[in-house]
Structure formats: structure tokens, C-alpha cells
Amino acid sequence: MPLPTGMRLPLLLLLLSRGRRWRRLAGAYSRQPPPARSLSCGGGGTGPRMRPGPPSSGCFSASWARNMSSKEFDPTFPTTDWKVAKRHLEEIDHAKRRCYYKAKRFVMIDEIQTWKDFSVEEKLKQPVTSYNKDDVLNEKISLLQEDITKLEIDAIVNAANSSLMGGGGVDGSIHLAAGPLLRDECATLNGCSPGDSKITSGYCLPAKYVVHTVGPFVQGKERLPEKVLSSCYIESLKLADVNGLRSIAFPCVSTGAYGYPNGQAAETALKAVRQYLEERRNSFDRIIFCVFLKLDYVLYKEKMPFYFPFGAKPQSQLQEQCQ
């Protein structure tokens, strides 16, 4: 039925006003940005959760990071600003950092025997040596066969290549366990020369820091570059000491693909650490020789008593000194 002439105009105006209102509402919704993503804790691979994001676009701001809870900040995500992540992780202790570990298990320093206790438990025999017994030093060092990326200590040493950007072996394992932000920070360090060392955050490692050192590469039957390898250990200890770190673990630097014979590498490492501790007795609470291969474990177990004697000098040696 056609509408009376007097009602047509008001109805038309009503429809037009409603149409304009719906268009305004539709436009307003279309202009709203999508919900920002912030990141859930850990590297479990479940993907980021939908949460209110940081107040500005791009990298996370330092002020926002300080107000984040542990469940909202994820240093495993590659778009996180490594400087913000590093600052955030430096301000919390190991217990709070455990949320970020990629490792499903980790080894606390209290679980690692000192060399003094190890030598007693293993009933080792003291060989003839020119070094004196020092119980204080023997309580500062340890021998452990373990994956170095599992140690919850102040710093682990990375046997790195000169670019510090990650490769195979220990280097690749550490980069994988630390997450993508380690590579981002390493890119700012301009590489590293053989025998030198540089330090970064540990990010998703149980260790708070990574000390990167570049060992010498050995080819053929050339003379072993002992000074360069010794410098790797000494400079790493100096760098950790300067940064106030009290515990550090070394892998077998320059062995394996780098070609340095395992036995000679172990002797150089032990000699360098003994020399450093004699000059700076109070610099560290624990220095750990963390080996992965059974071969290196046997070698260190055999050679450590020469550099860190745990018993009295054999009678035969005492007689030789008196003559």
C-alpha cells in the first residue's frame, strides 16, 4: 500500500540519517588498528599470545620493558631489541631468568664438585709436580663432562670464530641455545682477533653472559701457537673479572675442527688458569673445565693433578729437592 504523501518525506529523512550513522560507525571500526602482539615467556614454540603491545611501534622501549612481567617479555623473539632484552635480564637474578631458558634442564653451580672433593671421591694418585698444593685454588676449580649450554653460572666461554656470528660445534650450540638476540648483539662487536675475547649477554642460556674467544687454527705439523691459546684463557678471565663475574666455564678451545691436539690444549689451558689464579687469588669463586667428549674428560682428569696438586709431594720428589 502506498504511503500517504505527508509521511514520505519524514521516512526518507530517517532512512538517510540512519545510513549516514552506520557509515560513520563502519568507518570508525575500519580505521582501528589490529590488536598488537606481545610475547609469551619462553621458547616453547606455541607462538606469541595476543596481549596489549608496547606503547610505540617498532622496537620495545626500555621504560615499557621495566614494567613488563616475566610472562610478557620473550628474548627468544627476533624482533625484540637486544639492548632492551639485555638490560632486562641483567636486572633479574637466576631464579627469575629461568622462565626464559630454552634448556629443559640446567645444572646449578652447587651441583658441580670442586676439584678438591672430586680428587678425594675418585681416589686419584698425586703425581710428581713442580706446583705446590693449594686447597684454596683446588676449591675454585672443577672438572665436568657436560653440555656447557646447560650451566647456570655467571658466564660460559664460547670457542667462537672470528666473526662471532655462530658456526658449528660449541659455537653453534651456544648460539642455538641463546636464541636470535645473541647474534644481533654479536653483529655490533666488529668481530674478534685470535687470542682476544669479547662479552655479550647469555639471553636464553642459563648462563647470564657469554665470553667469546677466538682460538688459533692449527694446520699440519706447524709449531703450536701456545701463546695465542693461552691468551684465550687469560683474556677471557680478565674480561669476566672486570665485569664482576664470579663463575665461568671453559670448553676445549681450539680442539676438534681447529686442529689443536687435545692433550697439549688441555695442558695450555690448565697452565694459564693456574697462572691467573696465583696472581689474582680472589678473582673467582669457580672456574670450570667443562668438556663434552670422554677423550677430553680423561685427559683433564690425568693432567689436572700436575697443575692443581691435591696431595703431598711424593717422597721421591722430596728427596730429589733435598739433594
Task: Report on this structure.
The protein has 323 residues and is an alpha/beta fold. The chain has 2 domains: 37-100, no CATH class; 108-315, 3-Layer(aba) Sandwich (Leucine Aminopeptidase, subunit E, domain 1). It has helices at 5-31, 62-66, 82-90, 94-97, 115-121, 135-138, 169-178, 180-186, 226-242, 262-279, 294-307, 315-322, and strands spanning 107-108, 141-145, 151-152, 155-160, 197-201, 209-214, 247-250, 286-291. The strands form 2 sheets. It has a 6-stranded mixed β-sheet, sandwiched between helices. α9 (226-242) crosses α10 and α10 (262-279) crosses α11. It is globular. It starts with a helix and ends with a helix.
The tally of domains stands at 2
| Mean pLDDT across all amino acids | 81
Architecture (CATH level 2) name of the largest domain:
3-Layer(aba) Sandwich
Total of helices: 12
Helix content bin: 40-55%
Strand content: 5-15%
What would you call the shape?
A: globular
The SSE string, one letter per element, is HHHHEHHEEEHHEEHEHEHH
Numbering strands along the chain, what is their spatial order in the largest sheet? 2-8-7-4-6-5
**Radius of gyration computed on alpha carbons:** 30 Å
Query: Main sheet?
Result: 6 strands, mixed
**Structural class by SSE content:** alpha/beta
Q: Briefly, what CATH class of the largest domain?
A: Alpha Beta
